[in-house]
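User: Round two. Same drill as before: sequence, then structure, for each protein.

Assistant: Same drill it is. First protein:
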Amino acid sequence: MSARCKYSCQTAAQTLEWIIAIKDFLTPYTFFLNAHVVNFFKDRLWESFLEWMDCLRMEPTENLLQIPSGVVQEHWPSSLKEFIVTSRSLVFPREQAELQMAFPGLLVTPLNNVLTQGMNVKKKHEVEVLAAVVNSIAKTMGAHKIVDIGAGQGYLAQVLSFHYQLPVVAIDACSHHGSVTNARAQRIKKYYASVMRKSQSGDSILNAPRTITCNLSSEDTLRSLSDSVLCKDHFEKSNLSLDEPSHERREEGRLPSPYNADKESPLVLAGLHACGDLSVTMLRTFRECEEVKAIVSVGCCYNLLSEEGISANSQCGFPISNGGRAVGLSLGKSARDLACQSAERWRCLGTDAGLHNFDLHAFRAVFQMVLDRFYTNILTRSPPIGRQGKALRRQQHRKLSMSSLHQEETTHTPFSPTRKHSKKEKSGSSMMSTEFGTDEMSDLALEKGATCKGSVDKYSLFKKFSLSAFSRLGLKPLQDIDLLVLWEEQEPFASYIGPYWSLRAALGPLVETLLLLDRLLFLQEQGSSVETDMLPIFNPALSPRNVALIAKKSLRQSLVI
């Protein structure tokens, strides 16, 4: 049993209706959105949903991993099923769109090994698809210049430039990215020059992307840069590199343009996972800058968005639409963090990986109890120790891969299932001289099937997690800290953390839908002269942030600002 979306966003009125429906659903669960899983044991978070938790704690892990996708079981309480199904029915669908229907004549062509050098499978898929979409829109709009916002190492810009032969400007805040882009572009340029010589295409001109290093803090800055790239002879045969620190000029509101603008040439803004407010800046620039005729934006990093009522920024990233502000949209950082959760990624997790994920959350939550009791001053600094979970998961995947190769050769497991703890081990003194490097940390990667069979000594894993966390925080474990006692106090409730985290993750796609609809409504509010669309253009299993906001201004009239 699962749910399908029943809402539409073809018009501004429909989009606002959808937004209000999400807001009304989420309002009673504000405490759930704002919860921190690190405080799971400290605040006894499971008690808010005790009936649901008692039901789900006995469920197979594979059923928990299906919850963010809206899949429920018949024997669950009706209130639990209603929560999951209703939440999913409000989520914008993520199945990859039929791109040929949305963009007639679109052809996504595989890229050669020279252009894809350095890309992983995910990035290759994203760049191949987005470049084809941008090229299609550029042709439709008669645009001859593309501006890649938040270009990173220039993968998208170089494909648009060399493969589709479009003049491209790649803008990024990091000067190192600009240098990498230029160096990579020169290598690609040599390859294509060699191909051209062999095919005797002497009249063809190779233009590498132009790189600009600039912190795009506002649409004024981006609008100024847009003016600077609109010139007839801007793209020359040699690659240009402009590195402009924008601190002083940003205060002036506009960057000086050394070029003569060609106002007749439409400009397209493109952004592949432009972080936080950068995606919103693109939307505002599309509205404010007459020369920008189209935009293709795939956002990410919602946790970095500035929010009205929370941030001092006068141009906040959420809400951006008039309708969103009118109905009082508000989320907070914890909820925006949650928007990064992917139902597809959860669904694709295996049982072992899912259990390992839950274990890491349990270890982190118990360690929060350590900090709360013995290092209260540290908590005021919100210590960023959670990232070690990502490293441990990567080590887990590597070790599982190796384990499967040697499964028939050995039955040895790294931890004894019934290992006793000595008095020496119970005391804090045994930890004080213990430090973990890469090899020791890799011991936390569990053998395949270990967690689901209960054959691993969880306390040993928690202890190593804690010692690593102490090291990260630069702390020396106190003599009177008894990690074993702390672990045994909370372990009876550890089985709640998987169900709790799964239910909270089910709200992630819904929160992201709210953020995306707010941006779509902003574009729709610009009137009939703007054609808007919101499409999942990537395979969600490869690229969870797969929704593109696409807007085009009418070629017959300018947008009234």
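Second protein:
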Amino acid sequence: MSPVEEKRTSIVEEDIKVEEEKVVSSEPAASTSKAFANVYSDDTVSRLVAQDTTPWYKKPNLRLLYLLFFPTCIGVEMTSGFDSSMMNGLQAVDSWDTFFNSPRSVLLGLMSAMYSLGAVIALPFVPLVTDGLGRKWTIIGSSAIMIAGAVIQTTAHNFVMFIMARFILGVGIPFAIVAASSLIGELSHPKERAILGSLFNSCYFIGAIVAAGTTLGTFRMSSNWGWRIPSLLQVIPSAMQVVFCFFLPESPRWLISRGRGAEAFAILAKYHAEGDTESELVKAEYVQIEKTLELEKSTKNSVGWKDMLSTPGMRRRVLVCAMLGLFTQWSGNGLTSYFLARILDNVGVTDNRTKNLVNLANTCWGFLNATILALTVSRFKRRSAYLLCACSLLLIFTGWTIASARYAISGDQGSSRAVIAFIFLYSPAYNVGYNALTYTFLVELFPFHVRAKGITIFQAFGRMAGFFNTFVNPIGIAEAGWKYYISYVVFLAYEVVFIYFLFPETSGRSLEELAFLYEEDEAKKQKELVAQDLKEGHIGANISGPAADGKDEESSSQLAKS
């Protein structure tokens, strides 16, 4: 056996040695056989990741990758944050209010809801583009669409042009969100994957802070630039994505699924092992990804939308992600995201400067607690964090409703201040689950071959709920006042029950180890295939197979060294 082959088998040999030390001497033959059969019961990739004690910031290649994530993948949510905060702030900008003839109720709802409507119409095409073009090029293309939408919004000279611009912005955002969240999960080192996935949503507040600060600075401007400047600045996040994505590698899982194994292995080696092509972790990751994809393909040669409901496991995944889409929008967050100014009107806060200050302060507070939670909550169990989130929101929204009712009945200023306090308490309660964990959880919930479709289903339910919210909320606030909040209290109680009984636990395992979360037979077969492939010294047919003329091998070496 060559030195390379000896190196390749060391992963399995180490696990066998550990298991053999546990074997009881009275049953040597049976126990040794059982030990080898259960080599992968502890999941090799997770074990190797746990052994890596070097922090990411001491790894130059990985450090560069994570820095690139911020203006590209993680930065995608800055666009969403900017949009919602800008629409909040513009309602307290006199020049905008005058230019569009003081839109309220239905018209205001339509202006906000067009963003969600564009996203809903685009969603059926998102998996086709994301799986067809790859994650990286989908982000670039969708960002170009959003730049066009922001430019049209800035130059809008009537109501129709403004809402069509918002529709175009909405068309672009789901492509970027699905591709970016998938790429973060598929490209990150397993040790930091959950934290980076959690940071994805916290960047929402960076865009929101910029928009809130901008509208605070322009609300006194008498010219139309008071609202056109914030609209123009919406170009910046998408422009950053277009520029920096050219320096970002593609998803190794997508490359392997396209028969480009050498490129995938080189990317894994460069970023997960600092260019070490003999790394045991990289080989184990590659084999695990390759064998998992093979099993997924053997189960279904092609996956259509009907196949998302073809098995009990897939049906449960779809149910959980669909409800999660509703939960992230129907938990009351739409009220503070788009209609804070109208809520403050209802509790006696009518000064535009005060409204913009509350908007900016709440946004900054949201960014602070969302970032802290993103860096910490991913270390805890997902289901427990979601339960904490839903229970906290239920209690806070109940108090918010009672305080609003007391102000409406008696005009009590203490109740008005209590509503503002509940608005600030709402932020960390929401962020601990629905903000910090959502995309981390979705990437873990769905296997690679249906991941884009799964996140698209989440987006579809979330965007439809968002469209309903942004259209109906201003009508409900105007017509029913505090009584409208009762509907949210009832739905939050339902969320608690659903999460308790149906949410699975996904923490502490790699994506491939979670690929067959509900399919026990396929999970056992996966472990056997990976163990066999590593024992025989293989690191995937796609690395050696296509390289008959040496070009693929040379390409792999150059990528790993670059």
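The two ends are 30 Å apart (CA to CA).

User: Perfect.
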